[in-house]
Design a protein that fits this description.
Strands 1, 2, 3, 4, 5, 6 and 7 form a seven-stranded mixed sheet that branches. By secondary structure, this protein is α/β, with parallel strands linked by helices.
Length: 189
């Protein structure tokens, strides 16, 4: 069993990753540390930078997941700045920005980076497409969960409790990453 440290304070990310990796030979242990985030619109660059920093800081193999939320009509805003937008204008601000806009397409881009101390990160990513609802709905989750309806669903993510919501989030990128990690026998860990 290969032990990897998942750098996150978000328990939902851990649940999704553990579900995706349950048949693999990887054990994830959550580590809560603040990592520096570069200012980039490319979520893969953000995840890579943070993973490399954390691997070297902890001297352990780590994974770091980052997400971008992109609204097509708003030129991909807020992109990688989701946490900042949540703290400032929040979901009500997004709903005001979307008022009267017919194109309601949106997507999450989820990236996960794996890095060992002294190494270079490897990254996998996946997208979850959907639309912005006309109204806030739901009691679960945070920020976009109250207004994001994934393709193939009729309700916002906020209408589904954690056990159901974790099944909606894509997780193939975790499986691809696990395959790459397990095939690398020379990482020293």
């Amino acid at each position: 069993m290969k032990k990897i440290y998942f750098v996150t304070g978000n328990p939902m990310k851990v649940l999704v990753a553990q579900k995706a990796l349950e048949t693999n030979e990887i054990e994830l242990e959550q580590v809560k540390i603040e990592t520096p985030e570069i200012q980039s619109m490319d979520v893969k660059e953000v995840a890579s930078f943070s993973a490399e920093w954390a691997a070297n800081k902890l001297n352990k193999p780590v994974v770091k997941e980052d997400n971008a939320f992109c609204i097509e009509a708003l030129n991909e805003f807020p992109s990688t700045f989701v946490a900042h937008i949540d703290k400032t204008i929040g979901e009500n601000g997004i709903m005001k920005l979307m008022n009267g806009i017919k194109n309601r397409k949106a997507k999450y881009v989820l990236a996960v980076a794996y890095c060992v101390p002294g190494g270079k990160p490897i990254v996998e990513f996946e997208e979850l497409e959907g639309v912005i609802s006309e109204n806030l709905d739901g009691e679960y989750g945070w920020f976009s969960d109250k207004f994001f309806i994934p393709n193939g669903y009729e309700k916002t993510m906020g209408c589904y409790p954690d056990d159901e919501r974790k099944m909606i989030w894509p997780h193939n990128f975790w499986k691809k990453l696990a395959t790459r990690i397990l095939s690398d026998k020379n990482d020293g860990f």
